[in-house]
Write a structure and sequence with these properties.
The protein is mainly α. The protein has helices spanning 2-18, 21-37, 41-56, 59-83.
């Protein structure tokens, strides 16, 4: 599950760099669902925030929320890795 989240985060960053808002919106939806499944509620909430920014098209807000998502993702995934059963990762 952790690797799915990291892969989707990388794809999201690529989509945003390419200006592909439709793909970025789809990825935020998938990321939010995955985050909810593993109990990362803050991560999921920020993916929803980013999704709303993408719908609105505000480039500054998108960049700011994407940066916040990156920070939260790093912290959240580090915590998951620290507490998870190595076989489950």
């Amino acid at each position: 599950m952790v690797f799915h989240l990291t892969d989707r985060m990388a794809l999201l960053t690529e989509a945003l760099r390419a200006g592909d808002r439709a793909e970025a919106k789809a990825l935020t939806s998938r990321l939010g669902g995955l985050a909810e499944q593993v109990g990362l509620s803050l991560f999921a909430r920020v993916t929803r925030d980013l999704h709303l920014c993408l719908r609105g098209g505000d480039a500054v807000a998108i960049a700011a929320v994407h940066a916040r998502l990156g920070r939260i993702a790093e912290r959240s995934l580090r915590d998951v890795m620290r507490h998870a059963d190595p076989a489950a990762i």
